[in-house]
Structure formats: structure tokens, C-alpha cells
Write a structure and sequence with these properties.
The complex is a heterodimer of chains A (about 180) and B (about 160). With about 180 residues, chain A is α/β, with parallel strands linked by helices. Chain A contains five helices and seven strands; from the N terminus they run H-E-E-E-H-E-H-E-H-E-E-H. Chain A has a single domain, classed as Glutaredoxin (3-Layer(aba) Sandwich). In chain A, helix 2 links the parallel strand 3 and strand 4. In chain A, about 35% of the residues are buried. Chain B has two domains: about 80 residues, Cytochrome C biogenesis protein (Helicase, Ruva Protein, domain 3); about 55 residues, no CATH class. Helices cover about 65% and strands about 0% of the residues of chain B. The longest helix of chain B is centred in the last third of the chain and has 32 residues. Chain B is elongated, with a radius of gyration of 34 Å. The chains are: A alpha/beta (about 180), B mainly alpha (about 160). At the A-B interface, helix 4 of A face helix 4 and helix 5 of B.
Chain lengths: ~180, ~160
């Protein structure tokens, strides 16, 4: 019996390593899920005089999509979001993270604008409050202003259809 | 013809000589107060940079690390204590930012796993050692007369053949 122990230990180790192969160490679970979205009050990219606040969004289900014109994977994600916003009634706030206005405007002009408002977070302070550490990231906020989901990295078509869409339906049916 | 290797090596030597200057120019963070600066650096060496996960915020040149160093200084200027600054970071980035994770149920395996493994290994070693001792004791039994006879015959045979 005892001579099977090394084999058992080996099999267990291989099991752990195998699972580890498919886990992304860059995906750090956000402590903000289930907590109220952080306070923000930001001007929009196209109009410095117009500001959007967190509290003005209360009662709405919305997405906060963190992006930037310098962000390469945002280029993959952006067309998917544009398409998603066209097909489904969804409110998306863009959070333009550490960017410049002219570049951000040019980017939106070139790739399309799925955002209800594109907020301009020049120094990344609101980003820090949201615990952003890589762009793109997307938060889903419910009607009570609570963060319910965080997508780390770009949305894939599967994530949009299999995760986001059902989640939005659930959140929209909540009161 | 001969000039080319000379030129490349000179250029290389110049680059090599200049290279330490490049990061040195970037590494000076803002913030004038040396006391705050020292406090900030103390915290920054126990906070993980989430962009380059194996570096501290103090070591990293990532944009986010620089922003967070600036943020720490600002929080301190507002009169926040070190603990409050650490809480601020954990609230946003989770326990993962801490190089020294807190002891709680989810981190119990991390904290006590190695000690448990050592204990388990010690126990396994103790058992196998005892098992071997007992086996050894059995071997020390005196030979039966038949075994003795056979052994003598073999020994004699060996001596005879030399």
C-alpha cells in the first residue's frame, strides 16, 4: 500500500499544475464587487463643461468601460461594444483613462462611439478608485449603484453574450 | 572595413556607459517633504504593483506604480496614517496588493500549509523509521539449526574453493 503513496502525491501535483495552466494570474478578483461604485464627478471627453456624476446614474443599470486611445486591446474590444450597444438597449459610460482629449476624440471618431457619455479621467484618479490596473476593464453597476460584475481585459463575443447579456437582463428586472 | 567593428564597439561602450543614467533620471518621484517621502517608500515596499505582479510599488516603473506613490503621498499630506493608507489600497485592489497577506480563512493554507507539510513529513519519517527498526529486530533472531548447518556448509565450500 505504502508504495503507492509517491504515485498518489505525483497525480495530485499534476492535477494542481494542470488546473494552474488555465488560470490567468493577471485576473485579480476585485474587492469592489458587491460594494457601491466609487464616487465620481468627471467632465466628458467632448465637452469639459459637461460633468457626469455617480449619483446621477442611480436607478440605472449601466456599464463603466475603462478604455484609452493608447490601449491596444481596446481596439479589439471596441467594435464588439459598438455592435453590442447597437443591438441592445444598454447604457455604457466610457472612462477614458490617462489620455488626451484630441487623441480620445480622434479614436472615437475612427472606431465609433458606443458610450452614452465618455468621461475624461486625465490623471487616472477615478481609475484608482475603481481599482483599475489594466485597460480595458469593465464594471457593471446595478440600479442601487452597486458593482455587480467586473470584466478584466477585453470583452470577447462569448463573454458579451453568455455573461453580460443574461446579467443585464437580471439586473434590469430588479427593482 | 576595419573601422566598422571599432565604431560599433565604441557606440556600444558609449551606450553601456550611459545606460545607468536612464532609469536614474526617471526614478525621482515628486513630493518635496523628505519625511513623507520616507514614509511613502516604507509603505511602497510592502505593496505589490498589480501591473508587474512580482515587483513592489517602490521598485516598479509602471505608470500605475508611479500614480500610486503619488497617491500615497497625497493621502499622507491629508493627514492619513499608514494604516489608513494601507486600508485605502486594500479597499481598491484587495488583499493581493499586500506582500504580507492577512491571516484569515482563505489564506490559512498559505500561512500554515508549509508547517503542516513539515509535520506530516516528520510523522511519515518517524513511522517509516520505526517500521524499519522493527523489521531489523526480526532479522536479529538466532538461526535455526538447519539454517546454521546450511550456512556452515556454504562457508566451508567457499573456503575450499579459494
Amino acid at each position: 500500500m505504502s508504495r503507492f503513496w509517491p504515485l498518489a502525491v505525483f497525480v495530485a501535483l499534476v492535477g494542481f499544475l494542470y488546473v494552474g495552466l488555465y488560470r490567468d494570474p493577471r485576473e485579480v478578483p476585485s474587492p469592489l464587487i458587491g460594494k457601491p461604485a466609487p464616487q465620481f464627478q468627471l467632465p466628458t471627453v467632448d465637452n469639459p463643461a459637461k460633468t457626469v456624476t455617480r449619483d446621477a446614474m442611480l436607478g440605472h443599470v449601466y456599464l463603466v468601460n475603462v478604455w484609452a486611445s493608447w490601449c491596444v486591446s481596446c481596439r479589439e474590444e471596441h467594435p464588439l461594444l459598438v455592435e453590442f450597444a447597437r443591438q441592445h438597449p444598454v447604457e455604457i459610460l466610457g472612462l477614458d483613462y490617462k489620455d488626451t482629449r484630441p487623441e480620445a476624440m480622434a479614436w472615437l471618431g475612427q472606431f465609433g462611439n458606443p458610450y452614452q457619455s465618455a468621461l475624461f479621467d486625465a490623471d487616472g484618479r477615478v481609475g484608482i478608485d475603481f481599482g483599475v490596473y489594466g485597460v480595458p476593464e469593465t464594471f457593471v453597476v446595478d440600479k442601487k449603484g452597486v458593482i455587480r460584475y467586473k470584466q478584466i481585459g477585453p470583452f470577447t463575443p462569448e463573454a458579451l453574450n453568455n455573461k453580460l447579456l443574461p446579467l443585464l437582463q437580471t439586473l434590469n428586472s430588479e427593482t | 572595413m576595419f573601422l566598422k567593428p571599432l565604431l560599433t564597439s565604441t557606440a556600444f561602450a558609449v551606450l553601456l556607459a550611459l545606460s545607468p543614467l536612464v532609469p536614474a533620471g526617471e526614478a525621482i518621484p515628486v513630493g518635496a517633504d523628505p519625511v513623507l517621502q520616507a514614509r511613502m517608500m516604507k509603505l511602497a515596499t510592502v505593496l505589490r504593483c498589480l501591473v508587474c505582479q512580482n515587483q513592489t510599488i517602490a521598485d516598479s516603473h509602471a505608470d500605475l506604480a508611479q500614480d500610486l506613490r503619488r497617491q500615497i503621498i497625497e493621502l499622507m499630506q491629508q493627514g492619513k496614517t499608514d494604516d489608513q493608507v494601507m486600508d485605502y489600497m486594500v479597499q481598491r485592489y484587495g488583499d493581493f496588493v499586500l506582500y504580507r497577506p492577512p491571516v484569515k480563512s482563505t489564506t490559512a493554507l498559505l500561512w500554515f500549509g508549509p508547517a503542516a507539510l513539515v509535520l506530516l513529513g516528520g510523522f511519515a519519517f518517524y513511522r517509516s523509521a520505526r517500521h524499519r527498526n522493527r523489521a531489523g529486530a526480526e532479522e536479529d533472531q538466532p538461526l535455526t539449526p538447519e539454517q546454521q548447518q546450511r550456512a556452515d556448509a556454504l562457508l566451508l565450500d567457499e573456503e575450499g574453493s579459494v
